[in-house]
Input
Amino acid sequence: MGLVLGIETSCDETAAAVVDDQLAIRSSVVESSLEVHKDFGGVVPELAGRAHVATIGPVVRRALEEAGLDPLAPELDGIAVTSGPGLIGSLLVGLAAAKSYSLAWGTPYVGVNHLEGHLFAPMLEQPAMLWPVMTLLVSGGHSMIVLQHAAGRHEVLGETIDDAVGEAYDKVARWLGLGYPGGPVIDKMSMEGTAGSLPLPKSMTGVGLDFSFSGLKTAVVRGTEKRPDLSMSDVAASFQAAVCEQLLRKLRQAIDGREVQGIALAGGVAANSALRAGVTALADDYGIESHLPSMKMCTDNAAMIAAAGHYRLRHDGPSQLDLSALPNWQLADVR
Ligand code: KG4
Ligand code: ZN
Output
């Protein structure tokens, strides 16, 4: 199979990309409607959907042109579109676009799970990965430890029982009045602060591989109420250290006793500097590879959807035209 066009509209990014069967990226265009949501402290679904409607056509056109294809009749072998999980109204825009292109060009299309897309992101930059790989998939909506036996073959070993990591960052940032999204700001502020200035509880100390972040978030709120003298950067550094401690401890527990050749990070929170440093040190400690996607591969993009689409088209074949969006589609249900 040659070229696949990927389309991603599950949240606030409208993205399109063309990826070949060696997973080389021919083009990748991402437009974000984040500016529209900033004043609301989070993504407003209705506004995100409207932005996708206005942006999807031009974004797809640009992705095709930048890949050197005729935007009216591109020579593609497939179209891959995120069909879940995500915001229903946003997913439907991408899905309707993919079906229309599929009909107009006579090109097969396939619905792809957004989280499986994130799992393919590190492969776009490091195609020759040694398997199995233990992946920490951390974003604004999801936090999980996934054992990848090979590309497209994954097993969810643990996940958050309450907030996702990015969500906890965003909530703490909102509490501190730092705006949205909170992750990048807290990450930056942490560098100026001292971890441990604000004592925080250790969460999920048992043997299970699930995470919990809502207790930590509440502890930050209570702690800062009691210690108004603490600087914002000390609070940020303490929170970031506690989050990373839990994530890295669970990763270690997941790797112990399993034959693993590498550790990968995926999802928006994979951009976190402390987490990246921690995963690199962990992989060195085990003498295995670390796969840290570049910043643009951490956040939502369509190249990762096209990459997953190559695999799904080969293994499952195209989707039918009556496919609908699945806003709560679990990664564990993708086989
Ligand atoms: O994967 P993503 O772009 O969108 C979702 O599918 O959720 O992730 C966005 C999340 C936001 O919660 C944002 O605060 C967080 O990733 N994030 C970070 C950093 N950069 C983005 N969290 C911690 N540290 C960062 N540097
Ligand atoms: Zn995502």
Notes: Residues 130-296 form a domain with the Nucleotidyltransferase; domain 5 fold (CATH 3.30.420.40). The pocket of zinc ion (ligand 2) is lined by residues 114, 118, 139, 267, 300 (CB under 6 Å).
